[in-house]
Amino acid sequence: ISFVLIFLPYLVAQTFQTSSDYAKDGAFAVGIIYIVFCLANLALSQNITQLLGLRITFIVSSLTYLLFIAANIKYIKWVLYISAFLVGLGAALIWTAQGAYVAIATNKYEQVNNLEPSSRQGFTNGMFFGIFSCNRVLGNLLASFLFHRKYNEWIIFTVMS
User: Fold this and answer.
1) I want to staple 68 with a disulfide (CB 3.0 to 4.6 A). Which of 8, 83, 90, 146 is the partner?
2) Any stretches that span the bilayer, and where are they (predicted)?
3) What is the domain extent for residue 46?
4) Cβ(108)–Cβ(120) below 8 Å
5) 3-state secondary structure 88-156
6) SS3 for 72?
């Protein structure tokens, strides 16, 4: 559920960035996010996650998403680009930690219930992504409601932050 609460406003912000008056800058920011995400996954995320531990990794990486969402309150190009870079790093960390957390939780569940090792990995990952996918629907409904009511963008992204 915490992933839904993080990614619901993040995906709304990301969609808004690529369809706003500053769509080119938003598309460039999304490019920054995914380039940094890929490079950080290859070079940094596993070591940093092991160093910080799962709890601190989740906290730190979640804050990068908050910064990106808040960057939409008032458009400033360099703030958008810096927050995109940081969320790219945060994305690498949060998804590495998520994979480790689900694997650990599944292993404990299997041990407690005397199940074959790795027999529930697919189920728990599927359950996670099923619940996680709700954020797209809920986020778009919320954003549609707020934009339809003609709220200013700064109000919408302040609420989502």
Assistant:
1) 83
2) 26-44, 50-71, 78-106, 126-147
3) 2-160
4) no
5) HHHHHHHHHHHHHHHHHHHHHHHHHCCCCCCCCHHHHHHHHHHHHHHHHHHHHHHHHHHHHCCCCHHHH
6) coil
- Token readout for 114 is 């005397």
The Cα 17–Cα 12 span in angstroms is: 9
d(CA 65, CA 50): 21
pLDDT digits (tens, 9 = 90+) for 84-99: 999 999 999 999 999 9
Q: Which helix (H) or strand (E) holds 10?
A: helix 2-19
Residue 154 CA, distance from chain mean position: 20
Cα 32 from chain centroid (whole Å): 15
Q: What is the dihedral of CA 118, 123, 128, 134, to 10 degrees?
A: 170
d(CA 57, CA 90): 9
Summarize pLDDT for 60-119 with one digit per residue, the tens.
999 999 999 999 888 899 999 999 999 999 999 999 999 999 999 999 999 999 999 889
The residue type of 68 is F
Angle at 105 between CA 33 and CA 53, to 5 degrees: 55
